[in-house]
Amino acid sequence: MIVTIDGPAGTGKSTVARILASRLGFEFLNTGAMYRAVAFACLQQGIDLNNAQAVGHVPSSLEIVFANNRLILNGHDVTEEIRGQQVTQMASQVAANELVRQRLVELQRAAARGVNLVTEGRDQGTVVFDKAECKFFLTASAEERARRRQRELLEKGEEVSLEELLIQQELRDERDETRACSPLKPAEDAVIIDTTPMSLEDVAAYLENLVRKRID
Fold this sequence. Notes:
Blueprint: E1 2-6, H1 13-24, E2 27-30, H2 31-45, H3 52-56, E3 64-67, E4 70-73, E5 76-77, H4 85-95, H5 98-111, E6 117-121, H6 124-128, E7 134-139, H7 142-155, H8 162-178, E8 191-194, H9 200-215
Parallel strand pairs: 1-6, 1-7, 2-6, 7-8
Antiparallel strand pairs: 3-4, 4-5
């Protein structure tokens, strides 16, 4: 079985997907981290994101491995590095690159072969796994999403104002929703959940109940 969880940044989809996979005994795939890894590699290599051809060839030179909820890029653990503000802003630009998406979609589909999987991202239910048995789309208010990101950054020692985060978030949402390749939107058969008033544990429990009903 494949369970997809899509939605914009700050809705809790990565945390919820990780909790849900653990409760169900499924594999977990964090596709957002894959795009961040490509963005991080571009940053490390000094590649101009406006050079679509150069950016598009980056994924073919990378080995991306998930192990114990850590992301290993070419043998190095970059789990913390890819969550920084600069990489975060670059990731949505990288994700708009059609060559990058083609390569990562191949890797994502390969990861799903022969396993039960919970996967999160922005196009999992619409493009990558359009025949998935369970599809969810998480939303939350703009303010709550920015507050969640602010708390995450503070835990890493980064102080960014809520106003700045809201501006960055709006730009990223617009880029994700209007890109020509796999724009962010709910699948027609996705269950849409507003996570604003809910704890992420409660969201995971709600989704688990829906998935188990489908399994039964």
